[in-house]
């Protein structure tokens, strides 16, 4: 689009200043050849007057057409034919004025249309052909023949170039149209995308709401089946206690109420099934660790390997969750501090215990320095240690500056129940 | 600072934090009926717990986690920030990871389920006041019930990793080099060795290698 506009601008400048240049060229050449061509005194004065008239015409046209779109109009046609007349008479005086006469070839379609355009181009061809046939009027049969031949050539050329120009213009028009169409299509596409995104968001909201509703129904059913039943039972037992004077009987029913309450609480806990982290919801610990390690490796670009050794056993949820969290924390430390190129996560099942090792080949650290620097011991190690200790395990960290870091958790193997 | 509690000269002082008056009442009754404990006060939320703890200076705080007007995790963090002496034991209804881990990370000593039997609760409070680790109840009960008798030596086959470790030991490789080779910690290498020795009935590296050659495990 910018290109088209630029071309258009250059053409406008040419139409504005071109005729001046052609008039100047014609005038200079005619003045130089006045004697050679054999211009009479009358012809010389006429030429001077007409050149002045041509300048006035160009100035006037320039002033009138400023700020108007370049389209055929009555004043435009008037300007064209007056210019033609001046060019014709000037060429009659001296053929070199045909330079000015040829101005009619350029931009005629901006001033004329239809039959006027053809007439204008033909008239211009007469001026130019006449001048080329050594000046007007033709004298003798040879000149007339030459003039006629040249005129025919001009007409053929005008026709051919006119067709080409028309085709070019058509192409430009189509191109511009295509660009506009593309822009419209783009806009429509964008709108469609926006609508699609809105629909998608709406769908998500609906799905979530449906999920929430389902979950609510499920919970309501669970509460009815477990907690409400349990509470009813407890109330019944306690009512007996409230109404009996027999302490043994009372103790028996309190004990029953207590059992019921514990049972109900256990059921309620099972209903709230968010025991395990998401990563462990579908996978066992080895699979979850493998995924964690490979995702971490992809994210950080560190060559990461997961190894599991010994006989794999299904671990208790809490043990699995604790080890997974320790692995995540240790890897996140490695990503932040180690500048490692290689990392290894190793889960080792050893009969009655399990160890988890996270080792890297990074820059390591001086453990005493870290302890001095931060009150918490740094790098979330106390948090990891607390987690391991909570399940009767221990956590060790081995590191030396430049020699990498190994975090190792060792916990009792508590099987899943 | 916990000497008094361990020697039994002075009772362990407690602050109970829970939004349910019934639960507070129950806990208070339970601890006051037992010797060696004294309940200094109660708070219905974390914010009040922090300001009460500053004035009462209890040994142990029993803390609920989800309370309107100030949750437990924030309170634990705040207590840690103000340098409170008290150990915090979290009391929770659900033993879910999502509830308790943040509390442990914030500085709680351990957690207990609200329906834990009295004795378990007392033991945990005593342990906390002495600065000992309080085990996760879900795991602790299973650890206690699991019979961890040493297996008969020499009967169990070595795992692939144990054979790997043993082969390296036979070559005279140090623990440190084995750790580097297998890209694990030295601690885990030592654990592997402990299990190896038990399985082979050996008491050191040389014996383990000798037994392994005898049985054709190596070479």
Put the structure in a nutshell.
Chain A is α+β, with helices and mostly antiparallel strands. Chain A has helices spanning about 1-35, 40-65, 75-95, 100, 110, 115-130, 140-245, 245-270, 280, 285-300, 315-340, 365-375, 380-390; strands at about 305-310, 340-350, 355-360, 395-400, 405-410.
Describe this structure in words.
The complex is a heterodimer of chains A (417) and B (219). Chain A is an alpha+beta fold and 417 residues long. Chain A contains 13 helices and five strands. In chain A, 71% of the residues lie in helices and 9% in strands. A five-stranded mixed β-sheet of chain A has the order 1-2-3-5-4, covered by helices on one side. In chain A, helix 10 runs parallel beside helix 11. The radius of gyration of chain A is 49 Å and the shape is elongated. The two termini of chain A are 73 Å apart. The N and C termini of chain B lie far apart (59 Å). The relative contact order of chain B is 0.09. Chain B has a five-stranded parallel β-sheet, sandwiched between helices. The N terminus of chain B is likely disordered. The interface between A and B is large, with 48 and 38 residues. Chain B: GO terms for molecular function: DNA binding.
Largest sheet of chain B: 5 strands, parallel
Please write the string of helix (H) and strand (E) elements of chain A.
HHHHHHHHHHEHEEHHEE
Q: How many DSSP E strands of chain B?
A: 5
Biggest interface found: A-B, 48 and 38 residues
Pfam family, one (chain B): Response_reg
GO molecular function, one term (chain B): DNA binding
Modified residues (4-aspartylphosphate) (chain B): 64
InterPro entries (chain B): CheY-like_superfamily, NreC/VraR/RcsB-like_REC, Sig_transdc_resp-reg_C-effctor, Sig_transdc_resp-reg_receiver, Tscrpt_reg_LuxR_C, WalR-like
């Amino acid at each position: 689009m910018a290109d088209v506009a630029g071309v258009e601008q250059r053409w406008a400048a040419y139409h504005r200043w071109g005729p001046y240049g052609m008039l100047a060229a014609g005038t200079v050449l005619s003045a130089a050849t006045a004697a050679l061509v054999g211009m009479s005194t009358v012809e010389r004065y006429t030429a001077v007057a007409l050149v002045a008239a041509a300048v006035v015409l160009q100035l006037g046209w320039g002033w009138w057409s400023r700020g108007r779109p370049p389209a055929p109009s009555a004043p435009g046609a008037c300007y064209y034919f007056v210019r033609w007349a001046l060019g014709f008479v000037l060429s009659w005086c001296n053929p070199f004025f045909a330079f000015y006469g040829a101005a009619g070839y350029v931009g005629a379609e901006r001033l004329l249309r239809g039959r006027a355009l053809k007439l204008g181009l033909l008239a211009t061809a007469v001026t130019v052909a006449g001048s080329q046939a050594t000046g007007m009027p033709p004298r003798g049969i040879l000149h007339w023949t030459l003039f006629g031949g040249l005129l025919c050539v001009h007409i053929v050329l005008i026709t051919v170039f006119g067709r080409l120009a028309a085709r070019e213009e058509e192409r430009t028009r189509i191109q511009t149209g295509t660009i506009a169409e593309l822009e419209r299509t783009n806009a429509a596409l964008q709108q469609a995308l926006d609508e699609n995104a809105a629909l998608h968001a709406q769908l998500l909201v609906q799905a979530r709401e449906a999920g929430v509703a389902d979950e609510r129904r499920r919970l309501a059913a669970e509460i009815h089946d477990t907690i409400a039943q349990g509470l009813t039972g407890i109330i019944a037992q306690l009512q007996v206690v409230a109404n009996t004077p027999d302490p043994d009987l009372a103790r028996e029913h309190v004990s029953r109420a207590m059992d019921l309450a514990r049972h109900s609480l256990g059921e309620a806990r099972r209903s709230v099934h968010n025991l395990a982290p998401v990563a462990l919801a579908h996978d066992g610990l080895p699979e979850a660790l493998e995924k964690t390690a490979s995702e971490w490796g992809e994210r950080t670009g560190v060559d990461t390997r997961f190894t599991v050794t010994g006989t794999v056993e299904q671990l208790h949820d809490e043990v699995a969750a604790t080890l997974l969290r320790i692995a995540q924390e240790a890897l996140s430390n490695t990503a932040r501090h180690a500048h490692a190129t290689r990392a290894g996560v190793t889960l080792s099942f050893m009969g009655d215990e399990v160890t988890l090792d996270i080792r890297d080949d990074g820059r390591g650290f001086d453990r005493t320095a870290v302890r001095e620097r931060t009150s918490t011991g740094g790098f979330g190690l106390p948090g990891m240690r607390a987690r391991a200790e909570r399940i009767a395990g221990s956590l060790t960290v081995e590191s030396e500056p430049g020699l990498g870091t190994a975090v190792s958790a060792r916990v009792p193997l508590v099987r899943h129940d | 600072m916990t000497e008094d509690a361990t020697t039994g000269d002075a009772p362990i002082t407690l602050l109970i934090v829970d939004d349910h008056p019934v639960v507070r009442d129950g806990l208070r009754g339970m601890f006051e009926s037992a010797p060696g404990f004294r309940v200094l006060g109660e708070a219905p939320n974390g914010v009040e717990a922090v300001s009460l703890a500053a004035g009462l200076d209890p040994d142990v705080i029993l803390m609920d986690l989800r309370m309107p007007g100030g949750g437990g995790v924030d309170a634990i963090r705040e207590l840690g920030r103000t340098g409170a002496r008290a150990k915090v034991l979290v009391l929770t209804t659900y033993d879910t990871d999502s509830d308790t881990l943040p509390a442990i990370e914030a500085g709680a000593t351990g957690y207990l389920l609200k329906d834990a039997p009295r004795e378990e609760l007392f033991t945990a409070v005593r342990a906390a006041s002495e600065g000992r680790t309080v085990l996760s109840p879900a795991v602790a009960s299973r650890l206690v019930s699991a019979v961890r008798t040493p297996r008969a030596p020499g009967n169990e086959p070595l795992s692939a990793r144990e054979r790997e470790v043993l082969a390296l030991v036979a070559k005279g490789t140090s623990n440190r080099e084995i750790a580097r080779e297998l890209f694990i910690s030295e601690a885990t290498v030592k654990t592997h060795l402990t299990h190896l020795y038990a399985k082979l009935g050996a008491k050191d590296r040389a014996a383990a290698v000798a037994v392994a050659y005898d049985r054709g495990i190596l070479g």
